[in-house]
Amino acid sequence: MKRRAVVGQLAGAVVLGAGLPGQAAAQAANAIPRIGVLRWGVPGDENQSGLTQALAAIGYRQGQTIEIEWRWATNRELAKRHAAEMLAMNPDLLVASATPAALTLRDATRSVPIILGSAADPVGTGLVASLARPGGNITGVSSNLPALVDKQVQLLKETLPALQRVALPWTRRPRPSPSSCRRQPARLA
Questions:
Q1: Are 73 and 99 spatial neighbours (Cβ–Cβ below 8 Å)?
Q2: How far is CA 145 from CA 23, 111, 140, 177, in A?
Q3: Which residue, among 104, 112, 116, 108, has the nearest Cα to 136 in the 3D structure?
Q4: Which of 24, 37, 71, 164 sits a CA distance of 20 to 30 A from 80?
Q5: pLDDT digits (tens, 9 = 90+) for 7-25
Q6: Are residues 84 and 26 in the same domain?
């Protein structure tokens, strides 16, 4: 819960123009905060309208009180090009929608804050040092953590004590993190 509060405060500070560590303390009063969003995939999902609607509900209007630059990529080269474009716009904050987008942004900057909208195993992929202390300029959320799988299997065993085998559906896209793949058999034993 504390992590969500920090992410919310960080985003709020940028949106409200309060400034972040490393930025000039005196921003122009009429400067519009700029957020760069790098999504992994193709345009057309509901996340874009969802974010703009949520911001509008609290008084932020695209082009009037906030600027959001959206980019989509389906390969690493395109993602690198988009990251460079967004950094040239001097964003106050970057948002990454998936692990490949987050890795690209991490490689592009160590100074602009990056919020993970969703990342599989941020520790195992090297995005953050640890969940308790991510370090660097990256924070955010992940629902696909190895620790969650441990807890899910524990709950299954408690709910169904006679459980001996569990099927683990998996897909190659998006590619699961190496650390979560290595640990699966041990969890089910």
A1: no
A2: 32, 26, 13, 10
A3: 112
A4: 24
A5: 554 455 444 444 444 444 4
A6: yes
